[in-house]
Amino acid sequence: xxxxxxxxxxxxxxxxxxxxxxxxxxxxxxxxxxxxxxxxxxxxxxxxxxxxxxxxxxxxxxxxxxxxxxxxxxxxxxxxxxxxxxxxxxxxxxxxxxxxxxxxxxxxxxxxxxxxxxxxxxxxxxxxxxxxxxxxxxxxxxxxxxxxxxxxxxxxxxxxxxxxxx
Amino acid sequence: xxxxxxxxxxxxxxxxxxxxxxxxxxxxxxxxxxxxxxxxxxxxxxxxxxxxxxxxxxxxxxxxxxxxxxxxxxxxxxxxxxxxxxxxxxxxxxxxxxxxxxxxxxxxxxxxxxxxxxxxxxxxxxxxxxx
Lengths: 166, 131
Known about the structure:
The structure holds two protein chains of two kinds. Helix content of chain A is about 60%, strand content about 10%. Chain A is mainly α. In chain A, strands 1-3-2 form a three-stranded antiparallel sheet. In chain A, helix 2 (about 10-25) packs across helix 3 and helix 4 packs antiparallel against helix 6 (about 145-165). The relative contact order of chain A is 0.13. Chain B is an all-alpha fold. Chain B has four helices and no strands. In chain B, helix 1 runs antiparallel to helix 3 (about 40-65) and helix 3 runs antiparallel to helix 4 (about 70-95). The termini of chain B are far apart.
């Protein structure tokens, strides 16, 4: 019985997410749409399971919600900071820098979330990953101290992602 | 009635903030002079600009009693796709050697963009091309 459920719902969170997205796409709540969303949510993960090997087993929803709130707040601050830099700082005084972030994360999904977070938050864009996936290349818009940027990324985001994808 | 008035002012404020951030993003795109720094303005300020405009749209629909949550999806998809396009542009610039060369990664690794056969490397400008 448990094996049946594992086969039918290889990824329960994805099922819920797909159903939710479907209902929101309709922009109105009706029973038929919820049922159809659930059908899509069950069929799509089963059909695509073959293309998703080694997906993360553990995923802490509560911690991820906290993480998303932190990131949203950082995006707000980052926008104001970057807007201020763009409007007030002359190009000649800009201090762009490359930052190499050594990664402790190994799961592709976790690294993807980290890279996306870095691009969306304070003055940094993730540019590349090393061939073994052990280092992340980040470009900072304006920083006096690239090491501080690296430490903040590791402490603020990577540490939390490690806890989420355990 | 008061809620409606309050909502209308809130929508107006959101529209103003969104438009201002979108404008700053475009100014940044024009003003910054290096291809890598130029990437920063639209990726960040753009998300905020569009986020505020979508929030305005959502609040407006609720004030008018229709209710719409479409905008949450747009925001979600935008937050997922914006970093990927930024990453692709950054990789193209590294591949074309159009930016300051980045430091080597730790250990004996290379950046995956540079991990290409010699023949596949793009040459920067037509003048550099071998005759």
